[in-house]
């Protein structure tokens, strides 16, 4: 560890990360290297493809570049020593990086490299019963909500902070859990089953309340990992301050990072409504044309039937 970082960790009052750390405390990290390779492969696969430029930026910058900054920068360096930095790391890896990756349509991009036969096989596997279960919104939401609770309130987090290999695995699992959630909710790529975006919007609002519960429990609950932080020289007051700031990261910052996702869902909901209206208008036009043909053929006799049978939405609901 850098000398100035050691002084910060052992200080009983200071929980701040020195500003100079963003210039000096950079290191090699396997997750960062994987993110660089993934970005390069994505850009190569997406060349000349149908994926919009803004989605490529989301994948490479919000997803991969952010992952490199988190993994190789001071956040991962200081996370085992300061609770609030660990909470920030968890929030970024669970919300920001996966949202960028899922928004970049990686399944479409990398699927374009497959032959037609393998692409058809992949789509069949994607629509299999197991994939439909894993792609259900409840599964992704469960992973996103349960993972921080299990990580923080079990021996998992403490063991990860002490074991670099387990910490690397933990960070990969956080990104994976977040990706499953956003992939099945953004629905920019082919998914096992498409769900109404209105449902996604409702689920997101409920999840924001669950984030608040986690933040309140961490904020008002007992000190976590006291022996670990005491060994680093922190007093109970500094531990409490660090944990309080970390609670804000898990609660308020998670909701703040969720705002772009809400915007994405609202735009998707708008497109969904517009597409539904186009289908309804087309069905009404076809019905009116058929009615006009029937009236001409029958000498202008009015058509019989219940009023709701002519409405495409209600007719399909009642199988008419």
Automatic annotation (TrEMBL):
It is found in: Cell membrane. It is a multi-pass membrane protein. Residues 289-320 are annotated as: Disordered. Keywords: Cell membrane, Membrane, Transmembrane, Transmembrane helix. GO terms for cellular component: plasma membrane. InterPro entries: Caa3_assmbl_CtaG-rel. It comes from the Bacteria. The chain crosses the membrane at residues 26-45, 57-76, 88-114, 134-156, 168-186, 198-225, 245-269. This is Copper resistance protein CopD.
